[in-house]
Amino acid sequence: MHMAAAPDWGDVQIRLSDPGRLPQLRAFLAFDHDAHVIITGDDELEVWFVGSRNAWAQVRETELRLRAWMRWHPDVIATLIP
After folding, report:
1. What CA–CA distance (Å, rounded) separates 33 from 20?
2. Taking the chain, what is the end-to-end CA distance rounded to the nearest angstrom?
3. Integer Cα distance of 9 and 20 in angstroms
4. At residue 79, what are phi and psi to the nearest 5 degrees?
């Protein structure tokens, strides 16, 4: 599946050890309209937030949401790629 690339304003990539969980993670991360999440590869997705967040805030918000998701999926390894 080909998806459009995210705008270059602090987007963050996440790689998962279990690619089958990408749709679940995508849905979790995009629970509000400010978050945009696209699957960019077999085991990777990209996250960015609309609004006045700078690059640091983009990464921080992604980390917080990813940590919450990981609590419920301890068997998955996630690598954050800012």
Report:
1. 24
2. 23
3. 28
4. -115, 120
**Which residues are within 8 A (CB) of 39 and not within 5 positions of it... i.e. 6 or more apart?**
1, 3, 22, 23, 26, 45
d(CA 30, CA 38): 9
pLDDT tens-digit series, residues 56-66? 888 888 999 99
CB-based contact 69:45 (threshold 8 Å): no
Rounded to a whole number of angstroms, the CA Rg of the chain reads 12
Question: Domains of the chain: which residue ranges?
Answer: 12-74
Contact (CB, 8 A) for 69 and 27: no
d(CA 16, CA 66): 11
Is the distance from CB of 63 to CB of 1 less than 8 angstroms?
A: no
Is residue 53 helix, strand or coil?
A: coil
pTM of the model: 0.80
